[in-house]
Write a structure and sequence with these properties.
Elements (H helix, E strand, L loop, with lengths): L22 H15 L2 H9 L10 H10 L10 H16 L2 H19 L4 E3 H7 L9 H17 L3 E3 L15 E5 L1
Antiparallel strand pairs: 1-3, 2-3
Helix pairs in contact: 1-4, 2-4, 3-4, 5-7
Amino acid sequence: MENTKSMTKDAGFSGGESIYNDHDSFVEYVANDVIRSLKEKDKKYLINHPDPVDHHFGLGLYIRNKYIHGKELCFLCFPDDLSSEIVRTIIRKLAPAGERIRDIAETMIKSLKEMGDGASVSTRALLAKCGFGDDEFTPADLTEIHNALFDLAEANGLELDMSAHEFSFEGVPYDLKFTVRF
């Protein structure tokens, strides 16, 4: 088994507590450690290919072999799921937020055009249709994506009509359906 001394107090954790005890600390530590070791071209590749599935047998495998398999993790996890979460965290840390939000909104605009005039969908449902997982975004991220989608739709000559919700308090905007108008 790998010497875990470097993953305790020496790595910035108080009291010598091992990162193997806490899921969130483990994910953050591994993501930061991997980022430090990446070359610039690899960072750019990850930013341009943000789907963790694309990295399952590359970076994901590296993470599973170096940090997960053979380690005494004190929390339950499936190695594939944990490495995917770490890859998502790495990509989130690398991607400038505005660029990533815009890229996601552009992907969603393409999907809206394919759905056609009169289609009805919410921002969250459209994200799922575009292959993004519900666990990838915080409520703040969803709000930013929703706003970017509406801004980009207007720039692309699309109207996303939410008038059915006027004067009502139904929920957060990204969960409310809108109708696509060309």
